[in-house]
Fold Transcriptional regulator.
Amino acid sequence: MLQSTRRSLPMSLLRAREVVMAQFRPILAQHGVSEQQWRVIRVLGEQSPLDATELAERASILAPSLTRIIKALEERSLITRGKVEADGRRVMLSIAPKGQVLISEVSPESSAIYDDVQRRIGQERYEQLLDLLEGLIDLEKK
Amino acid sequence: MLQSTRRSLPMSLLRAREVVMAQFRPILAQHGVSEQQWRVIRVLGEQSPLDATELAERASILAPSLTRIIKALEERSLITRGKVEADGRRVMLSIAPKGQVLISEVSPESSAIYDDVQRRIGQERYEQLLDLLEGLIDLEKK
DNA sequence: CATAACTACTTAACATGTTAAATATCAAAA
DNA sequence: TTTTGATATTTAACATGTTAAGTAGTTATG
């Protein structure tokens, strides 16, 4: 039996993400960062420094995209880039002061939206959804 | 409180989608179509003809992307494009014979993967996940 | 009928996704 | 030590995402 395009898992995941991100995009746009740039900054805000591979993994961004994003963010002094003594191939990325300022500016607005979405869905359903998604994500590792 | 980048809804939705699509991409690649092109073809396979706006909505593709995709698919004779008598602005798209052949080739493999994912997650959890996603998507309309 | 407002689609410009290939460096084996 | 293979990142090429602006056709209003 053919899967309907309406109730298909990939499509539903795409649309759901679209609905959620539509809430965030205006805020990020106001601060001049893209969704992906914001992910990179936020990950580095949680832990710095990180090498590019780790960062790519945690921000769910492919290496070639990350290369471009790093370049852009470094030029705006939102992050800094350093080399590793022991391994000449690797690049270490850190959050820069300007980046930390950005995080402190965006985070409150971001949190407000998260809370709003969570409230509109319902606390219980929200957690349930995250659990189910986590289970789906873990399929990859099996 | 800062949202962790690990257990955030947008990230989880992105990663979950990535896990699922990773299963499909090889098949689509074998048949020479991108994920988005396949969505367009499949929607037209369910209903033809459709005008571009309807098609964009159902395939969750933005108008500018759709313009490019239509061009590519038309050049490969997978879909056809026609005009509307009553309204000179609109474009009507239909599935072409070659497109139908493609659908008949890809669908079985696609279904097998859907079934596999569904089985690995569990029927009940699978339905539950779709329901929760649907609820999230409906937030947009409120 | 003329104009203004709206609609459907396209084009433009730039960022990112995606795959493949290239570079440089490191690590292991001969 | 040289070669081979693996790893980390970058570059390239093309498709798509995204926002803004442009074009053509339509509808409403006067």
